[in-house]
Amino acid sequence: MGYLKAMRWWRKERMDNLLFQDKNQSYTVKFDTKAYEQMLYYCAISNPYETGGILIGNYSSNQAIANILQITPPPQNSRHSKCTFYRGIDGLKRILDLAWDQGQYYLGEWHYHPNASSAPSNIDKNQMIVLAQDQKLKCPEPILIIVGGYQDSWNIIPRAMAINLPSQRNDFYNTIYHISV
What we know:
- By secondary structure, the protein is of the alpha+beta class.
- It has helices spanning about 35-45, 90-100, 120-135, and strands at about 1-10, 20, 30, 50-60, 65-70, 80, 85, 105-115, 145-150, 155-165, 175-180.
- It has 3 helices and 11 strands; from the N terminus they run βββαββββαβαβββ.
């Protein structure tokens, strides 16, 4: 059905440019520093509970670079626990409508595994498949960013879900690395 391209990076100090790229240089995720720092802020204040939101941005003209320009906090009707997170929908339509007016749109999801691994659970993987197949989202390769660990030692793994690529089924996790520009 699909696979996840994984990107790994352990953050110790602030970077001006956050760029993640697979080893074949065919797929790149560029993360706006302000949006990235907002995401880590929401993780820090939610600890020890999971949290998350959506990723908003655009793609380069050749579709090879996903630019994450905004993240949302968890909608008010989200449910948080120490081991699960259900992202609600309150207010997201309005946020996405405003983003659309700026040439931006839904790119995927982010969430936090407090004091734990940033590896996706089976629930995470299944949710990405559902999102990739949702025709209303028009996002066949949603990005999933999971933040694991804790404030002094974040573990970040962005992934891009690709659906209907049978030749890649056995290569579920292609590592994509952080690079400096």
